[in-house]
Amino acid sequence: MSRAGGDDVAESAGPIDGRFQRLRRAAGALAACVVAAALLALAPAARAAPLEGVLSPGPVIAGHEKNESDCTSCHVPFDKNGQDAKCMDCHKEVARDVRAKTGFHGRIRRDACRTCHTDHKGRDARVIVLDETRFDHSKTDFTLRAAHEKVECAKCHVKGKTWRAAATDCNGCHRKDDVHKGQLGTRCADCHSEKSWKDTTFDHDRTKFPLRDKHANVKCRDCHQDPSYKNAPTTCVGCHRKDDKHKAHFGEKCDTCHNVRAWREITFNHDRDTKYPLRGRHATTRCVDCHAGDLYRDKVSAECIACHRKDDKHRGSEGEKCGSCHTERNWKEAKFDHSKTRFPLHGKHERIECNACHKSAVFTEAPRDCNGCHQKDDKHKGQFGPKCQACHDEANWKNILFNHDRDTKYPLRGKHATTRCIDCHAGNLYVDHLQTACIACHRKDDKHKGQEGERCEQCHVESDWKTTRRKFDHALSRFPLLGRHVDVACEKCHLTSQFKDAKTACVACHEKDDKHKRRLGTLCEDCHNARDWKAWDFNHDTRTKFKLDGGHQGIDCAACHRRPVDGRATLPMDCAACHGADDIHDGSFGKQCERCHVTTKFRAIKDRVGALARPQVLAAHLYGRPHAGRPAPLDANPSTIDSDRLPHEPVDPPATDEATDAQAHRS
Fold first, then answer.
1. Which of 37, 228, 363, 626 has its CA 20 to 30 A from that of 282?
2. Tens of pLDDT along 18-54?
3. CA–CA dist 610, 649 (Å, integer)
4. Cα distances (angstroms) measured from residue 200 to each of 105, 189, 191, 203
5. Helix 15-40 vs helix 3-13: crossing angle, to nearest 10
6. Cα–Cα distance between 375 and 392 in angstroms, integer?
7. Is 583 in a helix, a strand, or coil?
C-alpha cells in the first residue's frame, strides 16, 4: 500500500492507531535495509532470491490466512503494480465490475487496490473501511432517489453479507409489501414509484382488456375485488352475471349480442351471423325456444328433428329429414311422393286412402307385403306363404299368374298335373321347401320300405303309381333265375314287397325236400342244380380230399354223415374218427391206422412197400416178438419192416413159456 493510501486509512482509523502503524512501517523499513545489506554479502545465488520474502510485515487477515506462507500469491517481486493483477485473480466479481465499468469499483477512480485495502494487520483487522455518511451511492448500480434516500443502509445491506449482495430490484426488499402476492410479477416499477409506494401509474390500454365507453368510468375496485388484480375477470359475465336475464341460457359470450356502449343494445343478426337463416314461423320464434341450453357449449343442430322431436308423430320412423315432407310455413303442411318409396303404388293401390294401410302416424309400420293387408282374403290360410305376388297381381286379386311348368324347375306331368297344390305343399311354401324326388311325397306309398332305393322313377311312372316302366330283370340281381326258377311265380319267393327279404339259399325254400335232413349240410347247390331237383352230381374223390376206395366204396353217405350240420358238410379224415371202436390196439399205435391197414380189409397189414405182410410178420407186429434173430421195436413202423430178410416159409408162432407170455402181454 502507498504511504498516501496508508495515511488515509490510518486517519480514518484514529490518531493513536495511525501513529502506531507509522512506527511499525519505519521499523519494517529499517529491518528491510539490514536484511538487504546481509544479502549483498552472500553468494551470487543467494543474491538472486526475492528480498520481499525475507521478512513478513505482520499476520494477514483471516480471509487471506491460507496464502500467508506463499507471498507470491499476492505479491510480485520487485513489481508493486503487478500486485493489482493478483488481487483481481482472486476477487473476480470486482474484476468484472472494473472491466465492465459497473458497480462501485467500476465507477470510482482507478487506484491501486492497496490504496484502500491494506493487509498484514492481524487476523481480525478490517481491510474494508467504509464511511456510510460520506459514501456516494450514485456510483453504484442502484442510485438512491426519493424515499430511498432516507432509508438506513442496514435496511438493504444485511449483516453478514457483502455490500454488493444487496438486492437491486423492488421485489428483493418489498416482497412482504406485495399485496398482489406475486401474481403481477416482480416489475413493481411498472406501476409504483420511489416517491411513495401507494402512488401508482397504470395504463389499462396496455393490457388485454382496454377500457372503452362505459368501462372507462368504472372504479378499479368494482372489477378488481382482490388486491392481487391478476384475478380480475375479463369476460362480460364475470362482472355482469347478475345482469344476465337469460340465466346463462345463451352462454357467457355476452359481446356476441351486447356492446359496451349500452347493455340493452342488441347487435346480433341470425340471418347474417349464422348459417341458419330464419324463415317462416322460425322468424317469430323466441330464441329460448331453440337455444334452451348454453349457447356455446350446447350446439343447436340445424336439423328439424332437433327442436321438433316431440312433435314427430312418426316417432322417428320416417327418419330425421323432416324437410322432405314438411315446410317452415306450417308444420302440418306436408308433401309426399309415394313413388320414391320402396312401395310405389300401382293398380288398385293408387286409389286407396292412406289410412287404409297407414293405421298410425308411424308410416313405416304399414306392411309392405300383400299378406300384411290381405291376410283375411287368403283362402289358402297361409299354406302358400306370404308372397301373394308370386301368383296374384295388383290389378285384380283373382287373376292367377303362376305357372308351375314355367316358374319352377319341376314341371307337372301325368297325375301331378291334376293334383291339388295342398297335396304337395302342406306347409309354408317358402319355409318348407319341397324336394323333387318321388320319395319326398310317396314315402308312405313305398311298399318296398326303402329296399329298392329312393329313385322310384326307375320303375314307376307319373301316369299311374301301380304301372311300372319296365319288367324287372332278375339276371341283374344277385340271384339270376335259371332252370326251373324261371317259371316260378315271384310271390313264391318274394312273400312281401320287401323283395330283398327273399332268401337266396336253397334250403330256405327247399328244406321240406331235403331227404338228407341236413346231414349233408345246407349247401344243396353242391350236388343239386336248378334244372331238376332229382338230378344231382357229386364225386367224392375229386371234390373232397377223402377218396372213397376199398371198403369205403358203396357205403351209404349217412354211414359217415350222421348228424345234421349248417353250411358245407365236413368230417375228420382220420380212420379213428369212424373206426375208433374197432381199434384192438386201444390207441397204443396212434390214430393213423392207414399206416398199417388198408381200406380193402381191415385185418390186412401193409409191409414197407405197401404189399400185404406175411403171417409171421403179422405175428411179430401183433405180439411184438423178435423174428429171425432180430428184435422188433415196440414203436416200429410196420411200413419199415424189411420183408426181404424174413423167412419165405410160413412159420407158426413159437410156443412161449409163462414169462414170455407175460412179456408179450405187457407189450
1. 363
2. 444 455 565 555 545 544 444 444 434 333 334 555 5
3. 20
4. 34, 9, 5, 10
5. 150
6. 13
7. coil
